[in-house]
């Protein structure tokens, strides 16, 4: 099952500019190993403790992406290995990432998470907040953090027009930030959007990272 589902996504993404983040939250390590054996290399978890517990059990060449809200006091638990924190929503978090990454003499990548959904429960920055961060002296002094793009979670709706509008909004933010702050930085190139239910639209609207869990592993059991 896992292998067939991953093969399906690998085929969907072949020849596109988009890569798959296999969302492994709630699943046991043997399932993650099966996904790895089927070719998955980018893994997404939304909880620090869960990611830190699984990482030592699995091959070292996995790129670990944190996709859930991150409290600053927990950065230290994943700083030795995390590849990208997709949920960067404050300067305070960036400063803590810098401090912890420096301790391990490495660079942690980050995506700025934006609020694009209609529901106001969804977290994330608005454009002026992101610009305030990018214009700050403190941001420009970071040496162990590298922003590589943007991320957002769309509204949970079957309404394709609305989803497209939200994905276009995120892409617009990306284009603006790219032009204003990262024009000569080739590594600022990621637009992380699209999940099991809406990844097709997200790819059409320019996603470079889809985050897919249930379409690969089946429904999650949170017990
Ligand atoms: C769980 C999760 C996903 C994957 O959701 P599925 O619907 O299972 O594909 C993607 N992004 C974030 C931020 C998540 O928390």
From TrEMBL:
Chloroplast listed as a keyword: no
Coiled coil: none
Pfam families: Ala_racemase_N (PF01168)
UniProt keyword terms in alphabetical order: Pyridoxal phosphate
InterPro entries: Ala_racemase_N, PLP-binding_barrel, PyrdxlP_homeostasis
Domain Alanine racemase N-terminal: 2-220
Modified residues (N6-(pyridoxal phosphate)lysine): 25
Alphabetized PANTHER family for the sequence: PROLINE SYNTHETASE CO-TRANSCRIBED BACTERIAL HOMOLOG PROTEIN (PTHR10146), PYRIDOXAL PHOSPHATE HOMEOSTASIS PROTEIN (PTHR10146:SF14)
Functional note: Pyridoxal 5'-phosphate (PLP)-binding protein, which is involved in PLP homeostasis.
Similarity comment: family membership: Belongs to the pyridoxal phosphate-binding protein YggS/PROSC family.
HAMAP family noted in UniProt: PLP_homeostasis
Protein name stated in the entry: Pyridoxal phosphate homeostasis protein
């Amino acid at each position: 099952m896992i292998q067939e589902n991953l093969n399906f996504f690998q085929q969907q993404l072949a020849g596109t500019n988009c890569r798959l983040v296999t969302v492994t939250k709630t699943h046991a390590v043997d399932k993650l190993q099966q996904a790895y054996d089927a070719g998955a290399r980018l893994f997404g978890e939304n909880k620090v403790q869960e990611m830190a517990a699984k990482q030592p059990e699995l091959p070292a060449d996995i790129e670990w992406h944190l996709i859930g809200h991150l409290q600053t006091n927990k950065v230290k638990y994943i700083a030795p290995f995390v590849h990208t924190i997709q949920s960067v929503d404050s300067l305070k978090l960036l400063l803590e990432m810098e401090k912890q990454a420096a301790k391990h003499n490495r660079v942690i990548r980050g995506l700025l998470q934006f609020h694009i959904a209609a529901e106001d429960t969804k977290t994330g920055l608005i454009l002026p907040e992101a610009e305030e961060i990018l214009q700050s002296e403190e941001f420009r002094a970071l040496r162990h953090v590298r922003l590589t793009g943007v991320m957002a979670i769309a509204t949970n709706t079957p309404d394709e027009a609305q989803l497209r509008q939200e994905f276009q909004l995120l892409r617009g933010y990306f284009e603006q930030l790219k032009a204003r702050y990262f024009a000569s930085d080739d590594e600022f190139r990621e637009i992380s959007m699209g999940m099991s239910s809406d990844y097709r639209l997200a790819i059409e609207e320019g996603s470079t990272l889809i985050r897919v869990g249930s379409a690969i592993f089946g429904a999650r059991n949170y017990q």
